[in-house]
Amino acid sequence: MLNEPKNRISEKALTVWKIRGMIQTGIFLLLSIVAIVLIFLFDWPKWIIPILAILFIIDGYYSIFFAPKLQWRRWRYEVREQEIELQHGLFVVTKTLIPMIRVQHVDMEQGPILKKYGLATISISTAATTHAIPALEEEEAENVRQIISQLARVDEEDV
Amino acid sequence: MCEKKRLHPVAIVANLLKEIKEAIFPIIITFIISAGEQEGALDLFVFFVPFIIIAFTIISGFVRWLRFTYRIEEGELRIEHGLFVRKKRYIPFERIQSISTSEGILQRLFGLVKMTIETAGGAGETEAMLSAISKEESARIQSMFEMAKAKVLQENSMESVDEEQSFAEGTRPIIEEKKELVYMMSFKEILFVSLTSGGALGIIAAAVAFLSQFDELIPFDKLYSEFLNFVAHGIVLASIVGMFIIFVAYLVAIIRSMLKYSNFTVERTDENVIISYGLLEIRRTTVPLNRVQGVEIREHFIRSLFGYASVYVVNAGSGSTEESHDNILLFPFIKKETIAEIMKKILPEYAIDVPIHPVPERAKFRYIVRPFYYITIPIAIGIYFLRPWGWLLLLLFPIFSIIGYISYRFAGWNITENQLVLRHRFINGKTMYMFKNRIQALEIQSNWFQRRKKLGTIQSSIKSSIGSAEGKTVDVDEEVLMDIYKWYSRSQPNEGEWI
After folding, report:
1. Which residue of B has its CA nearest to A101?
2. Which of B72, B118, B469, B114 is closest to B291 using CA atoms?
3. Order of strands, edge to edge, in the sheet holding B419-425?
4. Which of A95, A104, A158 to mutate to test the interface with B (most CBs of B within 10 A)?
5. Residue B151 near residue B94 (C-beta atoms within 8 A)
6. CA distance linking residue A8 with residue B288, whole number of Å
7. Dihedral through CA B130, CA B135, CA B138, CA B144, nearest 10?
8. Which pTM was predicted?
9. Helix (H, G, I), strand (E, B), or coil: what is residue B228?
10. Cα distance between residue B320 and residue B465, in whole Å
11. What's phi and psi for B432, nearest 5 deg?
12. Would you say B152 and B144 are in contact if contact means Cβ atoms under 8 Å apart?
């Protein structure tokens, strides 16, 4: 059995994900309205409407309240001298191990919502894969980025 | 060998043919358009456009050829080219992932080869292609590459060697590398691989789909009983013609694949594996052994029934050249029992004959049921729309259970000091052999159901020509997962709870 990685991502991620959930639910709502209009216009079976309503409630609850909380609680990372360890996932819990010497480059990204809350995403690329830490405080993100790019440069094995 | 060299002039023709092939549709379209109206200077202009294009292509092709030079200097292949913008590309030998040559019909007429040099550069980026050089020239570049690489190795090992002297070759006789023939495909094997190749199977699938179209037509009969005879005859006739077309297509696919794989040989030199094959177009790929990222054994569903498998070498090329989108095919069709023995001659570091530890018994049920996740909804939809025959789709459940059971028997893993083997199957089986220092990232996953049974999925990625290749095993015992995780970890994670 293993310990969980030490660090958590920013608590503000919760807010950001909730906003994202709302946007997503909003889009679902719009599409449902379009669908309902079409149902009345073309006389399609009416039973689709309650199904849409139920789906809307489930989706709203899931993506605004349920998923962000659990996601946030699960998300952990740890940058050690020789490797990076990530853990995340809602239903499927994934643990990832990336040795420092495999890291090719580290990117920092900020979308509009993340920027508003002073957060940033870090993505770590190896020659074969890319892994992201979704929401860190800007300062912390910058810090992590620097630490990784320093440590990654230390020694080199062949590709 | 510092002087700049040009390609053989045939390269102009080869490039021209290629460009004409690409431009043929626009040219035909312009002709069709211009044929419509026949008045005014504009039409005349339109009429001449194709000629202008062709003339331009010929001239630009010639200038391009004139501008394209290559040379080997300071352990680098240096290419300069460009029509308007002069481009230089320097490729250090130690960055080369593979050198492959092929001989198209045009090249064969003049005793030339086309040489493609692949580096680990980002996917999609073309690195270097010498589209027509003489065979001697190609052999010379290959051996220069060998020597330069050997020199780099030497330098790395004992650093300060007198630099000028060791590389003042050029006049030095080319050392013929000792080649050892490791594997050769027999005619029977070539025939079999062609019979079961994807192309041929695709045609069979198309045939089935095609014939099922006629079944759909049958209800028509009820509407026109008068027509019945005629339609019935029509169906028979069309079926026969259809069958014939399919048969011919299948035959063509087989012949094409036989031409492609004939003379398939694998040779090994001190540092490279050389794979060559083809009858009309001869292809030859040189893979530096120290660039190999992993070994993959694929067990194609039908071929594995006969005890055969294919072996691939996972190579970190950029994958921009045709044919190398996938990993490099080492043995297209080989008896499973002989793989370990032959691989010992090629890549002795890899232990192919290690025992594969099975996944625990308690995973069996999960394996049998898992295919249902993917097929239940399609089957439900199928039954709904294809009644009454759709009910036959229910038979897919037991069939997929059996496939699941076979997958369960196949799955497994093995770790030794520095080698990880992961084995996975859905319909086709895949066994991946990877070294610890080649694995880019390791991932363990578990969903709620797996956690309840103390199982998890392990996946490890290595670099390949398309970016990444993965080895995977589903439903491994949790303790084994931890062991592999610790094996890969460089800082020994602490003992504790896992989720």
Report:
1. B440
2. B118
3. B328-335, B308-315, B292-299, B429-435, B419-425, B412-415, B357-358
4. A95
5. no
6. 44
7. -160
8. 0.75
9. helix
10. 8
11. -115, 130
12. no
- Residue A147 pLDDT more than 50? yes
Residue of B nearest to A4 (CA): B498
CA B461 to chain CA centroid, nearest Å? 17
Alpha carbons B485 and B245: distance in angstroms, whole number: 54
Coil, strand or helix at A73: helix
Q: Tell me, what amino acid is at B9? A: P
The string of pLDDT tens digits covering residues A7-59 is: 899 999 999 999 999 999 999 999 999 999 999 888 888 888 899 999 999 99
B122 interface with A at CB cutoff 8 Å: no
B248-258 exposure pattern, b = at least 16 Cβ within 10 A, e = fewer: ebbeebbeebb
Rounded Cα distance, B204 and B12, in Å: 41
Pick the range with the lowest mean pLDDT from B5-9, B80-84, B240-244, B343-347: B240-244
pLDDT tens profile B416-446: 999 999 999 988 999 999 999 999 999 999 9
Q: B residues 389-408 near A, CB within 8 Å? A: none
CB B279 within 8 A of CB B259: yes
Tokens of A141: 């993100």
User: What is the token pair recorded at B418?
Assistant: 């520095």
- The residue with tokens 């023939």 is B181
The per-residue b/e assignment along B186-214, b for 16 or more CB within 10 angstroms, e otherwise, is: eeebbbbbbbbbeebbebeeebeebeeee
- What the block records as the tokens of B366 is 């999960």
Looking up tokens 């037509």, which residue turns up? B217
Q: Test A92 with B446 for CB contact under 8 angstroms.
A: yes
Cβ of A41 under 8 Å from any chain B Cβ?
no
Alpha-helical regions (H) of A6-117: 12-42, 48-60, 67-74, 112-116
Q: What average pLDDT score do residues B392-416 get?
A: 93
Q: How far apart are the first and last CA of chain B?
A: 62
| Residue A128 at interface with chain B, using a CB cutoff of 8 Å | yes
- Helix (H) or strand (E) segment spanning residue B329: strand B328-335
Contact: B445, A2; criterion CB under 8 Å: no
Q: Tally the C-alpha atoms within 13 A of residue A99's C-alpha that lie toward its C-beta.
A: 27
Distance from CA of A78 to the nearest CA of B (A): 11
CB-nearest to A128 from B440, B493, B498 is B440
CB–CB of A128 and B498 under 8 A?
Answer: no
CB contact, 8 Å: A97 with chain B?
Answer: yes
Residue B261 and residue B400 in contact, taking contact as beta carbons nearer than 8 Å: no
